[in-house]
Amino acid sequence: MLKIKNVSKYYGKTTALGEVSLRIPKGSCYGLVGPNGAGKSTLIKILSSIIHDYTGEAIVDNKALTHEQKGKIGYVPQDICLEEGLSAIGNLYLFGKLYGLNGKKLKLRALEVLKQIDLENRAKDKVSTFSGGMKRRLNIGCSLMHNPDILIMDEPTVGIDPQSRNYIFQMISEIKNDGGTIIYASHYIDEVEVLCDEVAFIDKGEVVENGSVDELLKRYATPSIFMKGNPLTLNDIKQYGDVSAKKGGYMLTTNEPLQVMENIIAHCRNHVIDLERLELVQPRLEDIFFSLTGSELRD
Ligand code: ADP
C-alpha cells in the first residue's frame, strides 16, 4: 500500500501540487489522469525520490518513503533515458548495476527482463538502431531490473506504434498478475479506462476526484443517446432530455435511455421523419473529467 498525505510542491509561485492525498492499493493498476501541467510528473518524481523538497508525507508499506524504501520502486520516465551507444543488454546491465546487482544475478535478471520486454532477438544490437517503440520497451525493462514492487510509469506510450503499445499493455497485465502495483500517468484516458482499476483525476495540482473506474463511471456518467434524422429538429426531441448539437445530429442525456429511444422512434414514425441514426452512447471517463474540471485532457 502506498499512501500520499497532504503532499504539496511549489516552483516559485507556481503550485505544482497542493495538499494532494491518495491511497494506492497493493496489486492494483492506478491511473493518474490530467492534462499537461496538471502535476502528474511532479507527483511521480516525488514518489520516485527524484524530488525531495516537498511538504507532506509519502508512505510505502507503513514506512515513510526513504532511501531504503526506494528499492521497492521502479520509475519509467516520460523522456527515454538510455545509452544509445550500448546494446539492449548493455543498458540492462548498466541499470542493474546502478541498483546494486552484479555477477550471475545481474546476467540472469537481464535475460529475464529481455524476455519480458520481447527484445531477446535484438539483445546485442545498439539502441541507436531501435524504433521508438523498442526504446520505450527497453526503458521499461531498465526500471524492472531490480524487481520493484511498485512500477511508476510516466506517459509510457507517447509516440509509439500500436504493436509496442500492445506489448506494454500485456506487460502491465503480467506485472499485475504477479502481484505488482502499477502507477500509470497518462493524458490518454482511453488507455487508463482499459488498464486501470482505480484512477485519480488531477487538475491544476489538485485531486478533483478519485476511486474505482467502474464506480466513477456508474456515479457520474449519465447515459446519452446520439440521433440524426431527416428532418429532425431540436423541437422534436427537447422534451425528452438535455439536448446539444453534435456531429450533424443531436446528443441527448437522460436517465431513462431505453424509454426515450422508444419515444423518439414513435415520434419519428408519427411525424414522417427519416431516423438515420439512433445510438446509446456509453459513458466515458473523459466526459466525467471534463464535467468535473471544465478542462480538456488534450491540448
Ligand atoms: P504534468 O506531468 O501533469 O504535465 P507537471 O508535474 O510536469 O505536470 O507540472 C505541474 C506544474 O509545475 C506546471 O505548471 C509546470 O509548468 C510546473 N513545473 C514542473 N516542473 C517545473 C520546474 N522544473 N520548474 C518550474 N516549474 C515546473
TrEMBL record:
Annotated ABC transporter domain residues: 2-229
Pfam families reported for this sequence: ABC_tran
Keywords (A to Z) from UniProt: ATP-binding, Nucleotide-binding
MF term (GO), any: ATP binding
Entry's transmembrane regions: none
Source superkingdom: Bacteria
Protein known as: ABC transporter ATP-binding protein
Originating organism: Ornithinibacillus salinisoli
Lineage: Bacteria, Bacillati, Bacillota, Bacilli, Bacillales
